[in-house]
Amino acid sequence: MDTKSTKSKYIDNSDPGNLPHTRSEIQGTVQWLFSEGASTLEEARANGFMDMGCFLGFEIKNEGKGTDVKKSKRGKVYTTGKLGQDVTLGVELSTKEVADMRKALIALMGSEVDPLTQAALAADTTVDLPAFDANAKAAKLNYAYQLLKDGKDVREITTLKLTVGINELAEGVDYTLDKKLGMVRFINNDTLPAAAVTAKATAEAIKEGDENYMLGIKSMDVPRRRGYSRILIWDGDPGSNLVMDWEPRKTDISVSGGFKVDAENQSEVKIALNFTSASETTFVRS
Predict the structure, then answer these.
(1) Do residues 181 and 88 touch, judged by C-beta distance below 8 A?
(2) CA-CA 20 to 30 A from 187: which of 18, 24, 126, 194?
(3) CA distances from 256 to 91, 107, 108, 264, 280 (A)
(4) Residues 66, 122: Cα–Cα separation, whole Å
């Protein structure tokens, strides 16, 4: 019987000095391309891939589980091996660019909806506050109340005039105004409104391209995404900086951890790409 071991033509173990070599080291970033909703590779290629941007890094998540083969003998049970193998493979991407819309949609498990826009309000345009009265709906001291126009928040206030009956309230004495959010707080117990407040405001427009323009996400609308993903790992090698190229493969996308905002660190979110097909090739730099 031939007992000679099989040797890969790509690996030279004859000289221990060849391993490790500097090109086997990876310190770089990960690029993710995603064709959402595609059920086949042909469909993914036809639909195109969205560039999800570069990530700080990734961690390969792999696991193999086998079912124990149990034997028994006179009151004793022992394991003689394993049957089958349940293999899972995926990667966990990490990024600190949480406000990137492509990543925020996944982090909030949401879908894109209408952005935050606002038509400019001319001087002394009537806007709405709650209909206060002397009973259960009287205004509360130091509570914040949103200015509204046609049922929508009014923001970026330039001027505001509040009157109750014939009495005009004074800003800084009777109320304070958060001009950016369009929220009013009544701060004077002696003039706390117990009747309808007439509010007239001037407000700036909010449109695409403005610094105050914001995109909209409907949270918890898409808890899991599916499609085809291609992963590219890059490092700083000036000659050949593509380290690994994972051919497009079917994936389930989910959030593997929440993100937080604090004053001392950048926010971070981790996104899990779980591979659900097993026939693709991964190319590794030689």
Answers:
(1) no
(2) 126
(3) 10, 9, 12, 23, 24
(4) 71
| Domains along the chain with CATH numbers | 27-69+80-112+221-284 (2.30.110), 121-212 (no CATH)
Task: For the sheet with 121-127, list strands across it.
Answer: 121-127, 198-203, 157-164, 167-168
For residues 174 and 163, what is the distance between their CA atoms, to the nearest angstrom?
A: 11
**146/169 Cα distance (integer angstroms):** 17
244 with 282: CB under 8 angstroms? Answer: yes
Q: How far apart are CA 29 and CA 181, in angstroms?
A: 38
Q: Global pTM?
A: 0.76
Query: The tokens of 51 are what?
Result: 């560039």
For the record, the structure tokens of 1 come out as 């019987």
Which residue in this structure is represented by tokens 């909030």?
108
Pairing of strands 144-146, 183-186: antiparallel
In single-letter form, the type of residue at position 276 comes to T
Position 23, amino acid: R
Indicate if the alpha-carbon torsion angle 201, 207, 210, 215 is positive or negative. Answer: positive
DSSP string, 54-72: EESEEEEEEEEEEEEEEEE
Beta bridge partners of 200: 126, 161
Asked whether the bond before 16 is cis by omega within 30 degrees of 0, the reply is no
Per-residue pLDDT of the chain (286 residues; tens, 9 = 90+): 454 555 566 666 666 665 556 666 677 889 999 999 999 999 999 999 999 988 988 888 877 777 788 888 888 888 888 777 777 889 999 988 888 999 999 989 999 999 999 999 999 999 999 989 887 788 999 999 999 999 999 999 999 999 999 999 999 999 999 999 999 999 999 999 989 999 999 999 999 999 999 999 999 999 889 999 999 999 888 778 899 999 999 999 988 877 778 888 888 889 999 999 878 899 988 7
